[in-house]
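Quick check before the chapter quiz. The format below is the same one you will see on the exam, so make sure you can read both the input and the output lines.
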Amino acid sequence: MTDAWKAPLKLAVVGHTNVGKTSLLRTLTRDVGFGEVSHRPSTTRHVEGARLSVDGEPLLDLYDTPGLEDAIALLDFLERLERPGERLDGPARLARFLDGSEARQRFEQAAKVLRQLLASDAGLYVIDAREPVLAKYRDELEVLASCGKPLLPVLNFVSSANHREPDWREALARLGLHALVRFDSVAPPEDGERRLYESLALLLENARPQLERLIADQQAQRLARQQSAARLIAELLIDCAACRRSVVSEAEQEQQALSERPLSLLPI
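Here is the expected output.
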């Protein structure tokens, strides 16, 4: 592992409000108590972090961020920040925005997202694949791309019968985002985490050793769970096979019934 990646890899989980960011983190961390999940919009109001370690060594820091709500207005505001004759790149324009008062007022929640993405190595952009591809989502991606960090789109709710995965794939490709991963946080596929980390390794080649250790550890955990389940089933089958129950014969039942009858009811 290179010196650049001895520190834990930092991933910001970003996206529109109520697309399943916190649910994704609960799945990845296997912590049902992480964050708050609700159908109400803007449930997550602050950045929350979780760490994944293997054998005591921290490998990955995940950051849950507030949902983006008004990217259209934010992008318009960012485009007006440049002075006449200026041509700022994305990070420089965002730095000016984050230094201004609007980042502490009107766009406070969005500023939290952008600060965390700028401080991270990459971002997971979570998408509700049931939603149509609207202008607000395109503007979100343009704003996030201004951070200059690798983005991996994560298609959530792809198990739903009314998902729009083909539309999203086409829209993301038109924005230059050809690498993506399907990961339904409600019904995650068995190899979902492995494919997510493998896709990240393509974007962050220097972090591949850490991601491969996470993959190997999770495969070992899955095998251990399968073996534990098989052992419990085998023990149950043995217990069932060894089960014995004494049954009183019909003649013995009749004799017992007669012996328990009052003398006055016995035949003379």
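If your answer matched, good. The chain has a mean pLDDT of 88.
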